[in-house]
Amino acid sequence: ETGVTQTPRHLVMGMTNKKSLKCEQHLGHNAMYWYKQSAKKPLELMFVYNFKEQTENNSVPSRFSPECPNSSHLFLHLHTLQPEDSALYLCASSPQGDRLRDNEQFFGPGTRLTVL
Amino acid sequence: SQQGEEDPQALSIQEGENATMNCSYKTSINNLQWYRQNSGRGLVHLILIRSNEREKHSGRLRVTLDTSKKSSSLLITASRAADTASYFCATDQRGSYIPTFGRGTSLIVHP
Predict the structure, then answer these.
(1) Is the per-residue pLDDT at B1 higher than 60?
(2) Strand A31-37 to A87-94 pairing
């Protein structure tokens, strides 16, 4: 266990559904990340939150909406997704977003999302 | 944009052999990290090497860094079937704390 949990582990949804992914970290970290991992593609950074403030939005379509109510929780709200959005969505945390410090990331197990 | 590139893309060896994976990157870095991912799971941090370090060890893992060549290698000695996984390098470009991941090397260790 890495100290980062994600729910649900698997999700199947239609294109008109609205669902949310949840991530929780028990490590006292201040930076949290959403990544998308598709087959045969590099890990894609989606969003970064540092001390609850969004610091990165990597040109992600608006059908993905992140929310970070506190430093321990991160959500990814999904609506009107497309089949090409099917992927493994990974959450990660790190002590803080600071380029002067080592930035080891701790990942959750991921949510396997299938969009029909 | 992708910073690190692992080589080879896939590696298949017998248990007990050593496995070597390489990572090349493009710009100056603060540090380089190696991660492991079992199929369909999250990534697990293995080792971090700073730009002023040349070699680092952790158990059966040995990581080297050559900043002049902008490359790193991960050596797993006396491999086991349980080492079967994908291995990723991640680099942070100077001025950014966010690591960028490569496509990974898929390692299969046959028992």
Answers:
(1) no
(2) antiparallel
